Amino acid sequence: MTGATFEEIAIVGIGLIGSSLARAAKETGAASKVSLYDRSEAVRDTASSLGLGDVSDSLAETCRSADCVLLCVPVGAIEETMRDIAPHLKPGAIMTDVGSVKESALNAMQAHCPAHVHLIPGHPIAGTEKSGPKAGFASLFRGAWHILTPIPQQDEAYNGAVDRLAAFWERLGARVEIMDAARHDRVLAITSHLPHLIAYNIVSTAYDMESVGEGEVVKYSAGGFRDFTRIAASDPTMWRDVFLNNKDAVLETLGRFSEDLAALQRAIRWGDGDMLMREFERARGIRKAIIEAGQDTDETNFGRNAPDKKD
Amino acid sequence: MTGATFEEIAIVGIGLIGSSLARAAKETGAASKVSLYDRSEAVRDTASSLGLGDVSDSLAETCRSADCVLLCVPVGAIEETMRDIAPHLKPGAIMTDVGSVKESALNAMQAHCPAHVHLIPGHPIAGTEKSGPKAGFASLFRGAWHILTPIPQQDEAYNGAVDRLAAFWERLGARVEIMDAARHDRVLAITSHLPHLIAYNIVSTAYDMESVGEGEVVKYSAGGFRDFTRIAASDPTMWRDVFLNNKDAVLETLGRFSEDLAALQRAIRWGDGDMLMREFERARGIRKAIIEAGQDTDETNFGRNAPDKKD
Ligand SMILES: NC(=O)c1ccc[n+]([C@@H]2O[C@H](COP(=O)([O-])OP(=O)(O)OC[C@H]3O[C@@H](n4cnc5c(N)ncnc54)[C@H](OP(=O)(O)O)[C@@H]3O)[C@@H](O)[C@H]2O)c1
Ligand SMILES: NC(=O)c1ccc[n+]([C@@H]2O[C@H](COP(=O)([O-])OP(=O)(O)OC[C@H]3O[C@@H](n4cnc5c(N)ncnc54)[C@H](OP(=O)(O)O)[C@@H]3O)[C@@H](O)[C@H]2O)c1
Question: Out of the domains of life, which is the source (chains A, B) (predicted)?
C-alpha cells in the first residue's frame, strides 16, 4: 500500500502499547505524522530521545489536528483522559483506544466524546509482561488479532471510519475482527483475564506457604511455576483496572473455574485416576489447536531449553 | 573429569527423561556403557535407530551388570517395574529413579529392592511438555537442579554411593541437592504439581464455556491463556500418577490456593482496588528473583515475539 492511512495520528499514553504503536506506524508508513503525549515529563523525554515522533507537553496540541487519536492508558484512566481530550478533537476525527476491557471503555469514552467524532473502541490481542516506552517494539502487532467494537447502527460516515481504522491496524500487521463489546469482554475474560488472575493468585499462594521458603519456590520454579510468573509480572495498575472493569464476566468465569477445580480436587481426594486422565487428555488437544492456528510456538519449553539453546 | 563415573548404567523406560539421560551420559562420558530397556518394542526400535545405547529386549540382561540402574517410568509404574528389576541387580549396585514424587517412589522401590543394593531416589527438576524417546536431548539437565532423597542414617558404603550418584548427575550438568523425601513432595507440590493442576483446570474451564466457542479460545489465546496450555500439554499418565501419589501435599496446597482465590474474588466483587494492587505488586518481585537465580529467561514473552524474532 502506498500513501499513509492517516495523515496524522495522536497517541496519548506512551507505555508499552503506545510506544509500540508509534514505532509501528512510522515503520510501516501507516501515518505520516505521529504526535505523542504522556502525562509524565520523564516519559515524554524518553519518548523524544527514542525518536518515537513529535512529543508535545500539551495534550491539546497533540490532538488538535489528528485524524485518529489512540488512547493508550489503563482502562481506569480512560474516562478522565477522554474528558481532557474531548474539547480538542477535530470534526470527523476517529477516537479509539486499546483498553483490555471494552464495554466500560466505550461507556467512559461515550460520556465525553463529542458527536462530531467517530468513536470506535479497540483492543489489540498483543502484549508482553513489560511496561513503559522502552518496552515497546514495532512488530508487536504483527500477526496478532486486533478487535474493534464499533457502536452498532451508525451512519455511512461512521462505517467508513471503521474501515479506515481497520486498514490502519492491518497496515501494522494485525488481523482485524469486529465484535460486540459485551461479547469481547466475555471472550477475553477466559482467554486473558482469568489466566492473569490465576497467575497472580498462585504466586501469592507460593509466597505465603510458610512450610516452603520463598528461596525454594524460586530455586525449583523450573518445575512449572515459572511459566505463571511471566504473566504475573504484568503491570499491576493495568490489571487492577481490568478486573474492576470486567467484574461480571470475570466473576462468572472464575465461578466456573472454581467449580471445575473442586471436581479435580475431589478426584484427587478419592483417587479417581480415570477422571484425571480424561481431563488431562483433552488439554493436549487445545494446545495442538493453538499451535496450528499460529497462536503459539511449538518450540519445546517455549524454546527456553531447546537442544540448540544450551548446547 | 576423565574416566566414566559409572562403567555401566541401565536405563529402564526410554521416554523423554530416559532418552535424555542416555544421550547426556554418552555425550559427557559419565558412563562407558549405556544399556536400555523399554516395555514397548516400537520404542526399543526407535531407541536403537536413534543410537541411544545398547537396547535389549530383556530387562534382566539390561540390569544384570549395571553399576547404576535408573528407573524412568511414571510414578505409578515404579513398584511393578522395580519388582521385575529386583532379582537382576548386582550386589553394590545403585538403584535410583527420576519420579516426580519421592515419598511414594521410595516406598514402592523399598518394597522390592534387595538389601545388597543402594537405593537412592532422585528427581531432576528439568523436563518439557513433550514425551517419548524422540523428545529427549542431551542438554536437558544442564543447569537444572537434581534432587536426591537418600535414606537417612545408612552406612559408609551407602554414603559413598550417594556421592557417586551425585557426581554422575553433576557430570550431566545438573546441580545436586540433598533433601528429605517428604519435604521434596511439599516443595514440589507448590512449584510444580499445583501449577500443572491449575493449568489443566483452566483449559477444562475454557473448553466448557458454552458462551464462548472453542474457536474463540484458540484464536485469542495470545492474551495469556496460551501460556497455560504449554504445561497442560504434558503427559496425562505421568501427571495422573503425580496427583494420586502426592495427594496430601497437593490437597493442602490446593486448599491454600482456593482460599487465596476466594479473597481475590471478594476484592473484585467489592471493587477493592487497593487489595488487588497489593497482591499484583508482590508478584513482580518473585519473577525478578527467578530471573536473577537463572531459573528463567528475561526475554520478553519468553522470546516468542521479541523484536528480533518477528522482524
Ligand atoms: N500490556 C499488554 O499486554 C496490553 C495488551 C493489550 C492492551 N493493553 C491495554 O493497553 C493500555 C496501556 O497498557 P500498557 O501495557 O501500554 O501500559 P504501560 O506500559 O504501563 O503504559 C501505561 C500508560 O498509561 C499512562 N497512565 C497511567 N495511569 C494514567 C492516568 N491515571 N492518567 C493518564 N495516563 C495514565 C501511563 O502514564 P505514565 O507514563 O505517567 O506512567 C503510561 O503512558 C491499557 O489499557 C491496557 O489494558 C495492554
Ligand atoms: N516430563 C517431565 O517433565 C519430567 C520431569 C522430571 C521427572 N519426570 C519423571 O520422569 C518419569 C518419566 O517421565 P517421562 O517424561 O520420561 O515420560 P514419557 O516420555 O512418557 O516416558 C515414560 C516411560 O515410562 C514407560 N512406562 C509407562 N507406563 C509404564 C508401565 N506401566 N510399566 C512400565 N513402563 C511404563 C513408558 O513406556 P512406553 O514406551 O511403553 O510408553 C516410557 O518408556 C516420570 O516418573 C516422571 O514423573 C518427568
Answer: Bacteria
